[in-house]
Design a protein that fits this description.
Layout (H helix, E strand, L loop, with lengths): L29 H6 L7 E6 L2 E5 L5 E9 L2 E10 L4 H6 L1
Antiparallel strand pairs: 1-2, 2-3, 3-4
Length: 92
């Protein structure tokens, strides 16, 4: 909602920077991950601090961490769910 006299602010940086950390309001749960359905396109579920669970069209569920290094966006593969649990992915 835009109120007259105020500017709409848009966040163009969606990647966590070293100076700030984004917190997911809805953290992932094991129950939610098990119930997650795959679709024709890859879906990305965020747990916060760059941790993501990718739901692949093949049915695979893959852990990834998004981060920046040297000003460039990077992606680190951690493993496959359930081989790597939610707790294990958060600790990695």
């Amino acid at each position: 909602m835009l109120v007259l006299g105020e500017r709409a602010q848009r966040n163009t940086n969606t990647w966590p920077s070293p100076a700030e950390s984004y917190v997911a309001t809805n953290k992932l749960t094991d129950r939610g991950i098990r119930a997650a359905k795959t679709t024709e396109k890859t879906q990305k579920l965020s747990d916060g601090d760059g941790l993501q669970l990718w739901l692949m069209p093949t049915g695979a569920k893959l852990w990834r961490v998004a981060y920046r290094y040297g000003g460039k966006q990077k992606l680190l593969a951690l493993g496959k769910y359930p081989d790597l649990s939610l707790t294990g992915a958060r600790e990695a």
